[in-house]
Amino acid sequence: MKNFNDVISGVDEVLNSAKHGNFEDVLTKTKNYAEKATKKSAERLEISRKKIELLDSKTKLSKAYEQFGKLQYSAYIGEEVEQESIDRALQEIQLQKTRADLLDTEIAELRAAFVESLSKKEQRQYEREERKEAENAAESE
User: Fold this and answer.
1) Dihedral (CA of 40, 110, 121, 20) sign
2) 96-119 burial, b if ≥16 CB within 10 A, otherwise e?
3) Using CB atoms within 10 A of its CB, is residue 90 exposed (0-12), middle (13-18) or buried (19+)?
4) What confidence tens digit (pLDDT) does each residue in 23-46 have?
5) Mean pLDDT for all residues in the chain
6) Count of Cβ atoms closer than 10 Å to residue 20 Cβ
7) What pLDDT is recorded for position 86?
């Protein structure tokens, strides 16, 4: 609710400036506010997109581990297993592990840059939201 109150107080400030004949200031402040809000939204969207890519990579990694395990078990019980199938499973595991590590790094860098661009108050709120999101993710697992 604090964000809504911040927006309302910002709008009040702009309207008061307009009443006092500072229409140019109103336009400039409105434009700056819109640009800042658009930039923050784009940054958060990029972080969210990277998180989705990371989840996809982890899902593929899990499937690759499962496939590798099935192949190993088949070999263990004496069934014939092609080495090429094992090699493909190992390559997929390596690919997805590398991809997940890169995405983790990218997310951390994007998040750090985003948090740095926020005011102290916004940083605390963002970090609370992140913790709450992490707790919800942990509960659903």
Assistant:
1) negative
2) beebbeebeeebeebbeebeeeee
3) middle
4) 677 677 777 777 777 877 888 899
5) 84
6) 9
7) 95
